[in-house]
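Let us work through a complete example step by step.
Step 1: write down the sequence.
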Amino acid sequence: MAKQDLDEKTIVSSDTFRKNLSDVDQAPPALVMLFGPPAYQGKQWLLNKTSQILGRAVESDIFIDDRSLSRSHAKIDQVGSQVTIVDLNSTNKTSVNGRDLLANSPCELHNNDQIKMGNTVFKFLERGSIEAVSNQSMYEKANRDALTGAYSKGFLLEKGPEAIKRSESLNEPLSIIVFDIDHFKKINDGFGHPGGDLVLKELGKLVQSRLIRSNDFFSRYGGEEFVLILTSTHLQRAVEIGERIRQTVQAHEFIFEGNKIPVTISLGAAERNSKESDWASLFKRADGALYSSKQNGRNRLTVAPASSNP
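Step 2: predict the structure and record it as tokens.
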């Protein structure tokens, strides 16, 4: 390999290295779940507030859906560079490195300390930890669809029930939108799978960069079908968001090898009703509304009835 090539690679590598160091410097302390409910294992929570409650209550700053935890199990406080954990008189106790904590008695945390709460185990990572940055990157990658950048179906199946519980517990509105690309098989047949992949990739980028809010959860459910969870959102607002997505996709130019691919989507929207306590029921109503859109001409949004019963 020529010396010039080596020098250029060294420069690129150095720039990347400096950026990674900057990310590390800015990384707050974090908790990583080592053992617990399968959906949470490997998940990382940034400790970016002066005080955060951990527990089974959905309003907790760090919510873990596990019955071995008390509703408000423990609290983590930060004062300057010092991080402490306090057991809030929990039923199944909190321990650090195998030592049970006395209720309401703070314990200072150090890098790689193991924290056990009920049947869950966490690792504490101090501020500026390289492991925290690396772990977050791997967790995000594992839960993102590589092609579209949307969250994966597996992550959706974790977030959906969480959203239902939060809505039910806090009496907050919750709406979802399910949509898919019209006649996607024809796109693959006409432009090949690379053309279909381009449409999926651009649609994912379009929705995430321009059409949803920062706290909306956007997931690829499979194939050409997508799901959008809209927390604290009534149906009317969900319909407005869905219509904006539909119109923007229709107007967008999807260009593949110099050819424009016409793309439209069909959508179904539903709001959780007061008796709805499971994710499957809400999703079924929104998916049924999507089916109605497809049956009635496509490129439209249909609102699901308030109840799954006729």
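Step 3: interpret the result. Residues 184-211 form the longest helix (28 residues).
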